[in-house]
Specification:
- The protein is α+β, with helices and mostly antiparallel strands.
- The protein has 4 helices and 5 strands, in the order H-E-H-E-H-E-E-H-E.
- The protein is about 20% helix and about 15% strand.
- A hairpin with a 2-residue loop joins strand 3 and strand 4.
- It has 3 domains: about 55 residues, no CATH class; about 30 residues; about 80 residues, Roll (Ubiquitin-like (UB roll)).
Length: about 180
């Protein structure tokens, strides 16, 4: 049985269980944790189950301690902002991507031909499939996507986790492909 523990470089916050399938078979190169990606583009596995299953990262938008909550509540009352309101000015702004969507599984007449969409780089794959559904009528459950030779098979990962933001900036005409 092969071992994937070729070096200590295999273990990192981006690849905490090398060789389990969810984190990649190459011990030295964990997926989507390359140096040229920004920190928010890198995929960090959150939970590893008993059988090695890796869940997608997900964090609460606001998860304060009690002291932070009380401080924020006092600030909100002083500023006249209703408690629980989402303040857009404080939210980090994701980049908007203009992506070409094409299909290797359909002829152009079946889905409306290649088309451009403008979406957020922080959009999850499942949400992106809904955008494609609105344009094509192809059910989201039937859509399989690939970008730059990489299958977008984890629906809970964001587009930026697959490097779409990075590669789209370099090659804006590369399409996201609907595949079989």
């Amino acid at each position: 049985m092969p071992t994937y523990r070729k070096s200590d470089l295999a273990f990192s916050k981006y690849n905490n269980h090398p060789g389990t399938g969810g984190s990649g078979a190459h011990a030295e190169v964990p997926p989507n944790a390359y140096d040229f990606y920004d920190e928010d583009e890198k995929y960090v596995p959150n939970v590893v189950g008993a059988h090695g299953a890796v869940s997608s990262e997900w964090n609460f938008k606001y998860n304060p301690t009690r002291d932070e909550y009380l401080r924020d509540k006092a600030e909100a009352e002083a500023a006249g902002v209703p408690l629980g309101a989402y303040v857009e000015a404080r939210a980090p702004k994701p980049k908007t991507l203009r992506l070409l969507v094409a299909s290797a599984a359909h002829i152009d007449a079946e889905y409306g031909g290649p088309f451009w969409v403008s979406v957020s780089s922080a959009m999850r794959v499942v949400e992106f499939k809904k955008v494609i559904y609105e344009h094509t009528g192809v059910m989201p459950g039937l859509i399989r996507l690939a970008y730059a030779g990489k299958k977008l098979d984890d629906e809970n990962r964001k587009l930026e986790h697959y490097g779409v933001r990075y590669w789209n900036a370099k090659f804006p005409d590369w399409p996201i492909m609907m595949i079989n």
